[in-house]
Amino acid sequence: MSDSSNLPGQHGDGTGESRGAVDLSAGHHLEASPDRLPAHFPNPGLPPHQHRHGDDDPAAAKRYERQVASLFLMSMVATVLFAVAYFAIDDQSVITLPIIGNVLALHVALGVTLGLSLLGIGLGAVHWAKTLMSDEEVVEERHPQRSSEEDREGFVAILEEGAESSQIQRRPLIKYTLGGALGLFAIPLGLQLVGSLGPLPGNDLSTSLWDSRINGRKRRLVRDPEGTAIRLSDVTMGSVFHVLPEGIDETEQPLNEKVKASVLLVRLDEAKIKSARQRSWGIDGVVAYSKICTHVGCPVGLYEQQTHHLLCPCHQSTFDMTDDCKVIFGPAKRPLPQLKISVDGAGYLVADQGFAEPVGPSFWERG
């Protein structure tokens, strides 16, 4: 059994009572002593407010206002320089920096100007708060949480008092320069989010190597990557060929030309083809479609022979090859463009014309 006489803060005499105990029920306070803690601590209060130069000296306040405005102006100038550097500096220009070595000049210019733009806004806001905004401490007593008309009116009054305390209405120079700095800072964000996406495709996705002829004749369909021509008899029921146009040369044509011209060739049961146009653009059930998904341009290369569905592995867009390759599942919104094919005199499959519509995902200029 434990001995209650050994509990801290008590001096027991074996009777279960503590000598020197004070009845707290009557509101008495314990006096501080080495072996006792006070029941209540005195309110230390708030330290006296230390006035700053700007609080009492209008000339100092005006000087601080000019300093804050200068920082916001620095941010504005840096933002403008960011935009100038974005358009004026070649993205392949290289400069050599100490320790770092060779870096792209554009990256350095954008990083420095964007950093100065943010620094000007941040330092200006801090200097404004430290020198001009009210810094008097206030005590807010705890109260039950409720929402009443009086509370709403009080909240509005606090906001108005805060606006008055910030002196933003009395300091128009700060108000206008802060607005200019924050407004211009949207330029780098806009350039990065919109401008860096690259130019609109224009007519680039509407044309491909299938639109041109080679040596005055229609281009044959050749296997990728072997480059061998395909006869109609080579395409058996259910077989799949990854196809490129004859004459493609990766050393002469850019990679995007190969991508745009990539085609999937499949033989279907003609009785299962639902579209008359699809049947007329193929031959004996052999049809050719662009491999570029109309969602975000991933390669569509997974063919399910039983359902005749094409699946994009990136986001699971699914196309029905028996019905103009229309979308039956997934985020894609357009069917895959079909390539019109026929057979030449030697029995090889050729492209009669290019795709009837642009390949790849939708874009602003697309109808």
From TrEMBL:
<dbReference type="GO" id="GO:0016705">
    <property type="term" value="F:oxidoreductase activity, acting on paired donors, with incorporation or reduction of molecular oxygen"/>
</dbReference>
<keyword id="KW-0812">Transmembrane</keyword>
<dbReference type="GO" id="GO:0051537">
    <property type="term" value="F:2 iron, 2 sulfur cluster binding"/>
</dbReference>
<keyword id="KW-1015">Disulfide bond</keyword>
<dbReference type="Pfam" id="PF00355">
    <property type="entry name" value="Rieske"/>
</dbReference>
<feature type="transmembrane region" description="Helical">
    <location>
        <begin position="68"/>
        <end position="89"/>
    </location>
</feature>
<feature type="transmembrane region" description="Helical">
    <location>
        <begin position="173"/>
        <end position="191"/>
    </location>
</feature>
<dbReference type="InterPro" id="IPR036922">
    <property type="entry name" value="Rieske_2Fe-2S_sf"/>
</dbReference>
<keyword id="KW-0001">2Fe-2S</keyword>
<keyword id="KW-0472">Membrane</keyword>
<dbReference type="GO" id="GO:0046872">
    <property type="term" value="F:metal ion binding"/>
</dbReference>
<keyword id="KW-0479">Metal-binding</keyword>
<keyword id="KW-1133">Transmembrane helix</keyword>
<feature type="region of interest" description="Disordered">
    <location>
        <begin position="1"/>
        <end position="57"/>
    </location>
</feature>
<keyword id="KW-0411">Iron-sulfur</keyword>
<dbReference type="Pfam" id="PF19297">
    <property type="entry name" value="QcrA_N"/>
</dbReference>
<keyword id="KW-1003">Cell membrane</keyword>
<keyword id="KW-0679">Respiratory chain</keyword>
<dbReference type="InterPro" id="IPR017941">
    <property type="entry name" value="Rieske_2Fe-2S"/>
</dbReference>
<feature type="transmembrane region" description="Helical">
    <location>
        <begin position="95"/>
        <end position="123"/>
    </location>
</feature>
<feature type="compositionally biased region" description="Basic and acidic residues">
    <location>
        <begin position="26"/>
        <end position="38"/>
    </location>
</feature>
<protein>
    <recommendedName>
        <fullName>Cytochrome bc1 complex Rieske iron-sulfur subunit</fullName>
    </recommendedName>
</protein>
<keyword id="KW-0813">Transport</keyword>
<dbReference type="GO" id="GO:0004497">
    <property type="term" value="F:monooxygenase activity"/>
</dbReference>
<keyword id="KW-0560">Oxidoreductase</keyword>
<keyword id="KW-0249">Electron transport</keyword>
<comment type="similarity">
    <text>Belongs to the Rieske iron-sulfur protein family.</text>
</comment>
<dbReference type="InterPro" id="IPR014349">
    <property type="entry name" value="Rieske_Fe-S_prot"/>
</dbReference>
<feature type="domain" description="Rieske">
    <location>
        <begin position="281"/>
        <end position="350"/>
    </location>
</feature>
<comment type="function">
    <text>Iron-sulfur subunit of the cytochrome bc1 complex, an essential component of the respiratory electron transport chain required for ATP synthesis. The bc1 complex catalyzes the oxidation of menaquinol and the reduction of cytochrome c in the respiratory chain. The bc1 complex operates through a Q-cycle mechanism that couples electron transfer to generation of the proton gradient that drives ATP synthesis.</text>
</comment>
<dbReference type="GO" id="GO:0005886">
    <property type="term" value="C:plasma membrane"/>
</dbReference>
<keyword id="KW-0408">Iron</keyword>
<dbReference type="InterPro" id="IPR045603">
    <property type="entry name" value="QcrA_N"/>
</dbReference>
